[in-house]
Amino acid sequence: MPEDLIGKLLAENYPRQIAYVQKLIKSDIMSHSYCFVGSAEGAQNDFAIYFAAHLLCHKNCGQCKNCQAFQNNIHLDLKVIRSLNNQAISLKQIQEGQKHLSVSPQLGQYRLLIIQDTEFLSLASANALLKTLEEPPKKSLIMLTTGRPDQLLKTVRSRTATIILPKLPTKNLLNYQISTEEQKWIGGRFQRLVKLTAKNLDDFHTWQQDKEFWLEFIKNDTVQREKMVNDRFGSIKENRSLGKLLSTGLTNLEEVLQTLIQNGEEKSTKRLELIRILKTMLDDNVNVKMILDYLIVII
């Protein structure tokens, strides 16, 4: 699993930081907020995800409801906010994060909010975040990441506990060997983790983002769904490319629904049947835009 690869890389190259956060988790004496500071191409985002995974399940067993929900990117107690295409993190995004923190934990001990690449916070969103950092809700924990700490408001950073993640020397990555089983996961295309980091982890994060999109999609009403579909698919004019993107999306939506069913959400069973019908329609070359219209209305 890609999470295992990330964990091994972090443990090998940041042993002091890993030992520190593990001590925090075991002692259950933590700050209400942390800022993971790395380099522009550093591991701070992955470190925050690692921290979150171990907060949700101290053993990180991979089998419990917390681990299963986390691995499928649908954990109710975790929300990740990030910049899209290097655009500013908006006030609306921060308000959504604040709404997430205002709810009591559903599965774990904390409500977790990760805000990645916080140098992209707009002034309005940074000021809104500052209020939450000053008066955090109970049972909440906020994790910020940045590769450019000089661009983060000092008032924001001063209200967090900072964990520094120095840039890794290239030789550290080049010397990191991956197992035969891990090579199988990446299709045998790469032999060293540095190449995995450059390509496959990008693919993994794209997969994560797509699952977040579909989880949000099924929660919304038809008006908001239509807007989401237009934002995601509206700029693609060529039918073949649109069909390929929709096919990938439906597969990821199928996985989201399967996990929800495993967690006891019965209404997702009917939705899963409808998704499989839409996939069949796509295979039969039914008009892609018609399938999108069905998707908005009937799921």
Task: Provide an overview of this structure.
This protein is α/β, with parallel strands linked by helices and 299 residues long. The protein folds into two domains: 2-167, Rossmann fold, CATH 3.40.50.300; 204-298. It is built from 15 helices and five strands. It has helices at 2-13, 15-27, 44-56, 65-71, 91-101, 123-134, 154-157, 170-174, 180-185, 193-198, 200-219, 222-233, 239-262, 267-283, 288-298, and strands at 33-37, 78-81, 111-115, 140-146, 161-164. Strands 2-3-4-1-5 form a five-stranded parallel sheet, with helices on both faces. It is globular. It starts with a helix and ends with a helix. The model is unreliable at 170-202 (pLDDT under 50). InterPro entries: DNA_Rep/Repair_Clamp_Loader, P-loop_NTPase. It holds the Pfam family DNA_pol3_delta2.
Ordered list of secondary-structure elements with their pairings:
Layout (H helix, E strand, L loop, with lengths): L1 H12 L1 H13 L5 E5 L6 H13 L8 H7 L6 E4 L9 H11 L9 E5 L7 H12 L5 E7 L7 H4 L3 E4 L5 H5 L5 H6 L7 H6 L1 H20 L2 H12 L5 H24 L4 H17 L4 H11 L1
Parallel strand pairs: 1-4, 1-5, 2-3, 3-4
Helix pairs in contact: 5-6, 11-13, 12-15, 13-14, 14-15
